[in-house]
Specification:
CATH class of the largest domain: Alpha Beta
Largest sheet: 8 strands, mixed
Pathway: Amino-acid biosynthesis; L-alanine biosynthesis
CATH superfamily of the largest domain: Type I PLP-dependent aspartate aminotransferase-like (Major domain)
Catalytic activity: L-alanine + 2-oxoglutarate = pyruvate + L-glutamate
Number of strands: 15
Distance between the termini: 50 Å
CATH topology of the largest domain: Aspartate Aminotransferase, domain 2
Bound molecules: pyridoxal-5'-phosphate
Structural class: alpha/beta
Number of helices: 13
Radius of gyration: 21 Å
Helix content: 25-40%
Cofactor: pyridoxal 5'-phosphate
Protein name: Glutamate-pyruvate aminotransferase AlaA
Strand order of the largest sheet: 2-9-8-7-6-3-4-5
Domain Aminotransferase class I/classII large: 35-393
CATH architecture of the largest domain: 3-Layer(aba) Sandwich
Order of helices and strands: HEHHEHEHEEHEHEEEHHHHEEEHEEEH
Number of domains: 2
Length: 404
């Protein structure tokens, strides 16, 4: 009898956000148990509706979206992306520099697959959004993690970045605003990263999917316009700011020293042709979203639901003895720290599983974000205040069982 094993390509690939703890939670739900889900940044199930104009546009365009489109995406969407980035100061781009994908996720994998060879290294933040590390590993490269420093509002440690650059380093990933930490980087800091990339001939991979989800007056600066002489790929999409994760609509924009990357760009074109094209109806939402009313602002300004929930989650969490947390300036998450002198946690995935089993609350353990120590976990700030209160009460109770 022939057994079918997993491809060895996947040996080092890890994506714990949808790992064994989530599988167990699903089983519990199937048995009829109610789980408080603080695990995934998916706004719609929490009652964050998409702007009506986006839905109307998709519906209206459905009858004419039946065929494949250009493998880089429909013209109107790519043109809208170009115009959007030109307004942000990225002047030297045109529609040929834009690739539309089935979400940013698909494009991240494509960007790594088209570039990496065995021994190639990509600098990836720790903690990270783990798809980046997984995509590097799947593509045969090595993710070299640079530290983001909790003591410095989770800013990346520039010295650590410099130390980790070697002859095989091809690029650096920057997630800004950051998932899971909520850090938003200043222009000065970004200029330093650009300088490092310039000196060491690195590609900058800028994941800016949370660029419009900002709190307390934080301002987002896109890195690509600061780096006209460095090859940059900027990733963004509709999932978060426009609350349509399920539409799977994202894009990447190639800018700067594209002349240095001709072969790589051919590779990207080949991979996008191989999957024919991204979901066509949903691409019609891109022009409407970028050019339309930015309803996300209502959610993040004073009185807005996302801001209120971030504040509530932060206040409740930091009142629990033994928990500290840097207040996020953007995105949809908190990444709290558990005091290791107070709690005995050796395996944080076990910790998340125990919390699920005992209290029916689902969180993601910190090592799932390529954080080295088992002393963090991530929650989303999407649930309503009542649910956040419930979850934090249960967390405090649960933590008693983990006290040293
Ligand atoms: N990048 C970051 C930092 C994310 O947090 C996510 C989703 O949570 C993605 C990319 C993937 O987004 P998409 O829905 O466009 O695939």
């Amino acid at each position: 009898m022939q057994n079918f094993g997993m491809s060895s390509k996947l040996n080092n690939v890890c994506y714990d956000i949808r790992g064994p703890v989530l599988k167990h939670a699903k089983r519990m739900e199937e048995e009829g148990q109610k789980i408080l889900k603080l695990n995934i940044g998916n706004p719609a199930p929490f009652g964050f509706d998409a702007p009506d104009e986006i839905l109307v546009d998709v519906i209206r365009n459905l009858p004419t979206s039946q065929g494949y489109c250009d493998s880089k995406g429909i013209y109107s969407a790519r043109k809208a992306v170009v115009q959007h980035y030109q307004k942000c100061g990225l002047l030297d781009i045109d529609v040929e520099d834009v690739f539309i994908g089935n979400g940013v996720s698909e494009l991240i994998v494509m960007a790594m697959q088209a570039l990496l060879n065995h021994k190639d290294e990509i600098l990836v933040p720790s903690p990270d959004y783990p798809l980046w590390t997984a995509a590097v590993s799947l593509s045969g490269g090595t993710a070299v993690h640079y530290t983001c420093d909790e003591q410095s509002d989770w800013y990346p440690d520039l010295n650590d970045i410099k130390k980790k650059i070697g002859p095989h380093t091809r690029g650096i990933v920057l997630i800004n605003p950051n998932n899971p930490t909520g850090a938003v980087y200043s222009r000065e800091f970004l200029l330093e990263v650009v300088e490092i990339a310039r000196q060491h001939n690195l590609i900058i991979f800028a994941d800016e999917i949370y660029d419009k989800i900002l709190y307390d007056g934080a301002k987002h600066t896109s890195i690509a316009p600061l780096a006209p002489d460095v090859f940059c790929i900027t990733f963004n999409g509709l999932s978060k700011s426009y609350r349509v994760c399920g539409f799977r609509a994202g894009w990447m924009v190639l800018s700067g020293a594209t002349h240095k990357a001709k072969g790589y760009i051919e590779g990207l074109e080949m991979l996008s042709s191989m999957r024919l094209c991204a979901n066509v109806p949903m691409q019609h939402a891109i022009q409407t979203a970028l050019g339309g009313y930015q309803s996300i602002n209502e959610l993040i300004l004073p009185g807005g639901r996302l801001l209120e929930q971030r504040d509530k989650a932060y206040d409740l969490l930091t009142q629990i003895p033994g928990i500290s947390c840097v207040k996020p300036k953007g995105a949809l998450y908190l990444f709290p720290k558990l005091d290791q002198k107070k709690f005995k946690i050796v395996d944080d995935q076990r910790f998340a599983m125990d919390f699920l089993l005992q209290e029916k609350v689902l969180v993601v353990h910190g090592t799932g974000f390529n954080w080295k120590k088992p002393d963090h976990f991530r929650i989303v700030t999407l649930p309503r205040v009542d649910d956040l209160e419930q979850a934090m009460t249960r967390l405090e109770r649960f933590l008693h069982t983990y006290r040293q």
